[in-house]
From TrEMBL, chain A:
Taxonomic lineage: Bacteria, Bacillati, Bacillota, Bacilli, Lactobacillales
Family in the record: Belongs to the binding-protein-dependent transport system permease family. CysTW subfamily.
UniProt domain ABC transmembrane type-1: residue ranges: 62-280
Pfam families found in the cross-reference section: BPD_transp_1 (PF00528)
Entry keyword annotation includes Cell membrane: yes
Primary site of residence: membrane
The protein, known as: Phosphate transport system permease protein PstA
TrEMBL record, chain B:
GO cellular component, one term: membrane
Keyword Hydrolase belongs to the record: yes
Keywords: ATP-binding, Hydrolase, Nucleotide-binding, Phosphate transport, Transport
Enzyme class (EC, first level): hydrolase
Protein name: Phosphate ABC superfamily ATP binding cassette transporter, ABC protein
GO biological process, one term: phosphate ion transmembrane transport
Gene: pstB
């Protein structure tokens, strides 16, 4: 009887606390959408921001955010994947690799403001990149690397050791076992992890304020030459992202409709991140299904 | 022993770090015969088996000589990948890749660079026939290997090993994860395979050793206690430890 009672109480407490957490998250999400969505329109999404009058949109900021995610992933996925392959397939268990893992863990808990200032000193000033998408992408790479490396490593480790042995037993080299057996089997986990991390960096502001900059100069979406200063593809132009825009409009916005702009931007931001998460699930399960066929 | 040896092990020692797990094992594995390696858990039989095609390279220190066609393959400058193509391995649990039955069988061949469709087709049929799986799967070669039963998957893994045309097949408790029906199917397959291949098998199953093996090696605490024809080992063991183990006094 006693054990049953304890079990009942524990179950109730766990359910109540889980419900509370869920309720807090859902009501926060609903609030953001209810307050923000009425301000979102095609006009809002596809017109440039205004500096002094109301009625401005977020076209460039939204594009900058997406483009920055692409640039960051181009740099961080290969790095994280190589690091993860090393850690999961090749790294011996010794002090050096233990130190390496510790370094990755410490890096993952570094505040993003610190990463932003580091990026300002190193990429913006030292490397002379100025406030630019590239400087922002490198700062976000530092932010992204630890978690992405960890999720790639987890995905690789989940591939059963027997699969590797089967490959080796057939006379395959270690590299071939890694690329032909382990990587394909881990692909779904790696891609899911990458998309989730893309969603995470999409909402990052603090690391970007001093690296990608806070200004969104006029850009041309018809100029496909990435070396032209006004081209939307130019990685060396300063670029305010959506998250930075929200911060800036709120803290020093001069537009009369600052409130509406920031609420609308927040709604767009949260919906995009939601889309990233749903996409991650979809792609992950699609790849799994294709493999199991 | 008058039989011709497919593989000859001399003074084999294996250590995991500072822990010596196999000590001074010397053994000749007769060609085109089935040799069973028996012994309690931790006796070192699997370790010896895995040393024979250098699967222990990253895990353990293996010293001693392993002669294969007059070459000591336990040397650093020997190409281990070539060794493993000649000395294949089948594991405790079926390990099909998440591909079709057809692709699984030719996996090793594909990687060795074989592209000719006719050669591949022919080798798939030959290997699946040798592994006694052809009749069951010939109409569904394009289906996923993961849809097969455990016993079928294990025979598929045997076919996959056969497809690279090794001389020796090492089997590490190949039926320990299978039901009795699948087990007896695999045992029948083994008897047919020894016409062409040398089979060395680690097993915990005494009946399996006595049913299918021509030769039996008994290991205890890292040492080879006794090696001889299976009938002699089981009916008339020369060593007391062997007799004790077979009668269930330990192990």
């Amino acid at each position: 009887m006693r054990a049953e009672k304890v079990d009942k109480i524990a179950t109730t407490v766990v359910l109540a606390l889980a419900g509370l957490t869920g309720l807090a998250v859902v009501s926060f999400l609903v609030y953001l959408l209810v307050v923000g969505l009425p301000n979102v329109s095609w006009h809002f999404l596809f017109s440039p921001a205004e500096s002094f009058k109301s009625g401005g949109g977020i076209r460039d900021q939204l594009f900058n955010s997406l483009y920055l995610v692409v640039l960051t992933m181009l740099v961080s996925v290969p790095l994280a994947l190589c690091a993860a392959i090393y850690l999961s397939e090749y790294a011996p268990q010794n002090r050096l690799t233990a130190l390496l893992r510790l370094a990755i863990e410490v890096l993952s808990s570094l505040p993003s403001v610190v990463i932003g200032l580091f990026g300002y000193l190193v990429f913006v000033l030292q490397f002379g990149l100025d406030f630019s998408l590239l400087a922002g992408a490198l700062a976000l790479t530092i932010l992204n690397l630890p978690l992405l490396t960890r999720s790639c490593e987890d995905a690789l480790r989940q591939v059963p050791a027997l699969q590797r042995q089967a490959g080796l037993g057939l006379g395959m080299s270690k590299w071939r076992v890694t690329t032909k057996i382990v990587l394909p089997a881990a692909l779904s986990g790696i891609i899911t992890g990458a998309i989730l991390s893309a969603g995470r960096i999409f909402g990052e502001a603090a690391a970007l304020i001093y690296t990608a900059g806070q200004s969104a100069p006029a850009i041309s979406y018809t100029d496909w030459n990435p070396f032209s200063p006004t081209s939307f593809l130019n990685p060396l132009r300063p670029a305010e992202t959506l998250a930075v825009h929200i911060w800036k409009v709120n803290s020093e916005g001069l537009v009369p409709d600052a409130r509406a702009v920031s609420n609308g931007s927040a709604a767009v931001l949260i919906i995009t991140i939601l889309a990233f998460n749903l996409l991650a699930r979809l792609v992950g399960s699609l790849i799994k299904r294709r493999l199991a066929k | 022993m008058t039989e011709q040896a497919a593989l000859e092990v001399k003074n084999l020692h294996v250590a995991y770090g500072a822990k010596q797990v196999v000590q001074d094992v010397s053994l000749k594995f007769p060609a085109r015969q089935i040799t069973a390696m028996i012994g309690a858990s931790g006796s070192g039989k699997s370790t010896v088996l895995r040393s024979l095609n250098r699967m222990n390279d990253d895990l353990a220190t293996v010293t001693g000589t392993i002669n294969f066609h007059g070459l000591n393959i336990n040397q650093p400058d020997v190409n281990v990948y070539r060794v493993r193509q000649r000395i294949g391995m089948v594991f405790q649990q079926p390990t099909p890749f998440p591909l079709s039955i057809y692709e699984n069988v030719i996996y090793g061949l594909r990687l060795a660079g074989e592209r000719d469709r006719r050669v591949l087709d022919q080798r798939v049929e030959e290997s699946l026939r040798q592994a006694a799986l052809w009749d069951e799967v010939k109409d569904q070669l394009k289906a996923s290997a993961l849809a097969l039963s455990g016993g079928q998957q294990q025979r598929l893994c045997i076919a996959r090993t056969l497809a690279v045309r090794p001389e020796i097949i090492l089997m590490d408790e190949p039926t320990s994860a299978l039901d009795p029906v699948s087990t007896s199917q695999i045992e029948e397959t083994l008897v047919q395979l020894k016409e062409q291949f040398t089979i060395i098998m680690v097993t915990h199953n005494m009946q399996q050793a006595s049913r299918s093996a021509d030769w039996t090696a008994f290991m205890h605490q890292g040492r080879l206690v006794e090696f001889g024809p299976t009938a002699q080992i089981f009916m008339n063991p020369q060593e007391e430890q062997t007799a004790d183990y077979l009668s269930g006094k330990f192990g």
